[in-house]
Amino acid sequence: MRNVRNISIIAHIDHGKTTLTDRILEITGAIEKRKMREQFLDSMDIERERGITIKSHPLRVFYKSKKDGKEYEINIVDTPGHVDFSYEVDRSLAAVEGAILLVDASQGVQAQTVANTYKALEHNLEIIPAINKIDLPNANVAETELEIEDLIGIPSSEILKISAKEGIGVEELLEEIIEKVPAPSGDEDGKLKALIFDAKYDKYRGVIVYIRVFDGKVSIGDKIMTFSNGQSYEVIETGVFTPDMTPVDELKAGDIGYIIAGIKEVSLARIGDTITNAIDPVEEPLEGYKEVKPMVFAGMFPGVPEYYEELRKALEKLKLNDSALVFYPDHSPALGFGFRCGFLGLLHMDVVKERLEREFEMTVILTAPNVEYKVLLKNGEELIVNDPAKFPDESTIQEVYEPYVKLSIITPPEYLGRLMNLVQNEKRGTMISTENAGFERVVLNFEVPLAEIIFDFFDKMKALSRGYASMDYEFIGYRKSDLVKVSILVNKEPVDALSIIAHKDKAYSMARKLVDKLAELIPQHQFEIPIQAKAGGRIIARSTIKALRKDVLAKCYGGDVTRKMKLLQKQKEGKKKLREIGNVSIPQEAFLALLKVG
Ligand code: GDP
């Protein structure tokens, strides 16, 4: 048996995963303390700023056990910390034999941590629970123990208490990993079978594929094949993360490392796919591969119409590094040529938008995000619709289906009533069950339409619970629903990009809020502008923007010319941010008005 342990760390954001990893690097001497932050944390700026590390690369360290004096190789695989990336979490967990369950003693167990721990249990991982931040004055170790016991069924006697910051209990944790997590099994002499659990695009080297080898070996010059699409490549480099990328001669059963094989874009090295030897392939791939499907869609249009081509190039470049991003050309009578984009969730959408702005200096107009509907027409035809503008006419529709999720919320009991009210009365949710966890937490399980939680749900939940509640959700399937399309007319002209799909019971109130919001966001013009919402052939709400009395130059009459010029110039710049629709200028933020009324 090799002295190898492969693990992952399950932790909610801010519970101390990075600090613990840093401490492990320090204890094992993999990296100097001084250099640590810069070196290890190489994740994208956006993620760091938002406190969300989507994923950093795996790490290999060596630790000499104080108990048996032997040296062990420990590989730590990171898992993403956001529900948008739950399939990646699943595949990362499939790459290891054990997981540290790290819980902040001052915060208690959070919803996503529970969901991820269940995943780890499904993969038969050995779970090493550890309560972190015991040094904090407000650490509540006893309650956190109870929560772990109640939620995950791990007895409190088995839970380690550590402080990643102060280094307390971290060596004990490493000893526990060695003792409890099984060494990887697998046949080094068998046919190559490796799992792709992540892939990163590098400008100079192409795609770097992160793999866990289950059987066989792989080294430079080997012909490998990705199972899902039958593409083959020649291996240029194999290596491990120490934490820098360090080439090694070969990767064999049990190893975690990377392969470079001239793969051009990450969508060809799909997470969850199996790599095998192209000349001597295995017959069956590893279980659990699935194609990630976008759940949330939005129209994306260049801020300036002439930049369509540039936007296309930018999206293509992003796609090299982001296999979950989907886009195809689209045209909107209101916004011109652009793209329909599919994202894993709202965070993913925000990351894409910000990367376009920062890395490509592109301003884009995004329309309000929506989910994907299945529509059965009266003539028997079935449509998949992810653009409200293309939602068929009500008279032709037999049935509509929308995606549902199982939503779990963990909250202190005092916020229970408000949260139940939010989900059941405002968000069309149905309560499935509740459980207690310790004395200070309750778990609420609901079934809710995905469309109801993609907008402002997270913020509302946080506000209602003073930040204490946490949530997780997973897709459970499509359900029949009473949905209608609400179209918006600005100055009597339909603006397709503002259309929404709403449940019949909420169509009126949403339409009302939307027209009011639009009336606030669209500036006054020289003439009166009616904003109307239409559903089922009828106007269901209307708001009016009053005409502007004076024009901008009025106050300059007689004034000096330069001032007038300046004003005109300023106005011109301001206009860049507006879209002319008919003869009405609509600011970008109006296209996201829906987010504010959801
Ligand atoms: P991550 O989001 O899980 O990677 O969390 P970090 O490792 O970045 O930690 C979040 C915050 O908690 C940082 O400010 C850390 O300094 C702090 N932190 C982490 N571990 C401990 C600990 O054991 N004790 C205390 N007091 N603070 C900690």
TrEMBL record:
The Tr-type G domain, residue ranges: 2-185
UniProt-annotated location(s): Cell inner membrane
Class in the EC hierarchy, top level: hydrolase
CC terms in the record's Gene Ontology section: plasma membrane
InterPro entries per UniProt: EF-4 (IPR006297), EFG_III/V (IPR035647), EFG_V-like (IPR000640), EFTu-like_2 (IPR004161), LepA_C_sf (IPR038363), LepA_CTD (IPR013842), LepA_IV (IPR035654), P-loop_NTPase (IPR027417)
Record's function text: Required for accurate and efficient protein synthesis under certain stress conditions. May act as a fidelity factor of the translation reaction, by catalyzing a one-codon backward translocation of tRNAs on improperly translocated ribosomes. Back-translocation proceeds from a post-translocation (POST) complex to a pre-translocation (PRE) complex, thus giving elongation factor G a second chance to translocate the tRNAs correctly. Binds to ribosomes in a GTP-dependent manner.
Protein name (database record): Elongation factor 4
